[in-house]
Design goal:
α1 crosses α8 and α4 runs antiparallel to α11. The chain has about 525 residues and is mostly helical.
Length: about 525
Amino acid sequence: MVQNDANKWMVCLTVLLGAIMSAVDTSIVNVALPYMRGNLGASVEEITWVASGYILSSVIIMPVIAFLSARFGRRPFYLFSISIFTISSLLCGMAWDLPSLITFRVIQGLGGGVLLPISQAILRETFSEKEQGLAMGIYGMAVVIGPAFGPALGGWLTDNFSWPWIFYVNIPIGIISIFMARRYIKEPSFLVRETGTVDWLGLVLMTISFVAMQMVFENGQDKGWFDSSFIVWSTVIAVVSMALFVWRELAVDKPVVDLTLFKDRNFICGTLVGAVFGLCLFSTLFLQPLFLQGLGYAATQTGTILIPRSLIMALGMPLAGRLYNSWGARNIMLVGLAFTVCSYWQFAHLSLDVNGWDLMVPQLFQGMGFGMMFVALSTVVLSTIDKPKLTAAVGLYNVTRQIMGSVGIAIVASLLDNGTTNYRSLLIRHITAYNPISSQWLSKLAQGFEHHGMDAFSAKKAALVVINDQVNAQAQMISYNHIFMLMAIIFVLSVPLMMTVKNQRTKSDLAVGE
């Protein structure tokens, strides 16, 4: 299904428009949530569902994309998804209260969750075997860079217009995407249209499991994890329904999700490495803005500081795509891993005295590392999958990475909170009246406040507040250091998995894919 050069690049541009819209909308709302909360009269916990509702519905739809494509035709299904995404974007901007906004965001997620995996499958089918690395490099620019630039775009639109414009901006792009998809996207010749009954039980079990799982990730930290009966029961429901779902899909003749794909060693090993990548990537995107704002940077400054990483990723992905055929997947992954581990090592040794250059260098390493790993993984994990099963494989790979991203965010949020508390308790043990250093520090601070006109009692109280703030800041800094070091270790531990991934396709594999 490889097409001529002119048509190939028009297909590429068409699917990238949809992919970028979907990727940006996973994070564009984050900076506007406080404005939405005030405008709609919602609590902090309620307004977070504007973001998590989109993610949850996109995760639910991803594994069943192949089934729905076979049922209705991939081209009609893709056009329907873009249309649903565009219409729901308009409705999100017009939402009159919180329930309506969450409902439209869920619908938007159902459309957006389709665009990324199908775009990846179409790109793989459109480009030749020798250009697969390049295709995944282009695709990766949309998937990884979209969420990175989303907050900056959302902040600019909210500050200069109003929060509904973070949704309205999708409408002209969506309309253009619909017209281009009608012109350039074709139905694949190998797609077999499915008829007959739908595995509704499997679909319901999967949905219940994902919803319960998201409840655990969203509320675990606030409710004290397994100290809460709600979290315990949500976890039980998630695990049991997932087990029943797996049993159902392996037993039924026409499953809604093809789990037999995991029999392919290359696919399952690549998916596991992708799960590690997703865990660390999404955790990093969550942690680093918090880290920078904790150092005193404003939201706009934080977004600006994080831009170099995204730019390097934009440069690194096409480069990795071009090197894919000559270097092989494993070599690119290992080089990318070396860059990434080096960046986490540098982040793990930062202090409260960090300056712009200290933050710049690890970001550049991280951007290059993430970019190279993403391209190699996205290319090699699907290299042994036959084209008729490609859409199903893309859906499973993406949903695994997305779920592990949610797991990673939940884990690092808990580690940051608990670590800060534990390190604070260790630090304050040394700040006593019997410690000459802390006593001298307290005395100098109090004298400084007295010099500025405070009485002795108020000056000592103000000095204690300063010391307490410093202890809290140091405790949080140590917690960040240890989390970044943990991520470096997790990547290093994934090396054996990377070594089991097939390096390049053999001639027999190429013949199967044609």
